[in-house]
Amino acid sequence: MGKRDKLEIMRDILKVIKENHGHIKMTPLLRKSNLSSKRFADYKEELLQKELIQEIEEKKRGKQILITTKGMEFLEKYRAIVNFVNEFDL
Predict the structure, then answer these.
(1) How many domains does the chain have?
(2) Is residue 16 part of a domain?
(3) What does the pLDDT read at residue 77?
(4) Which of 16, 26, 68, 79 has the lowest CB atom count within 10 Å?
């Protein structure tokens, strides 16, 4: 397996959040993203700026990362592009 490109990493982070009922704590997300702390922080910041995720603080659960509607749309469009590329053997 080769290195993941930027869009694959963003997709992977969003997928992890989606697969955890749309929200996850920071530490498990960092662990499951398979990135260094620094690279994860950079990607998290970009995803926040692009409004693909949001960060909230809950009294009972603590800090949570949530996937936004825009983040869900990103995953759908990413899947469509991959299917297109595969279908035409590009």
Answers:
(1) 1
(2) yes
(3) 97
(4) 79
Domain-located, residue 88: no
- Does the residue 90 lie in any domain? no
- Give mean pLDDT, residues 8-24: 97
CB 90 within 8 Å of CB 81:
no
Mean pLDDT of the chain: 95
AA identity, residue 88? F
Predicted pLDDT of residue 84: 95
User: What mean pLDDT is predicted for residues 69-89?
Assistant: 96
* 84/80 Cα distance (integer angstroms): 6
Q: How many CB atoms lie within 10 A of CB 22?
A: 14
Within 8 A by CB and 6+ apart from 23, the residues are 17, 64, 65, 66, 67
CATH of the domain at 28: 1.10.10.10
Q: Which domain holds residue 10?
A: 6-83
Contact call for residues 75 and 38 (beta carbons, < 8 A): no
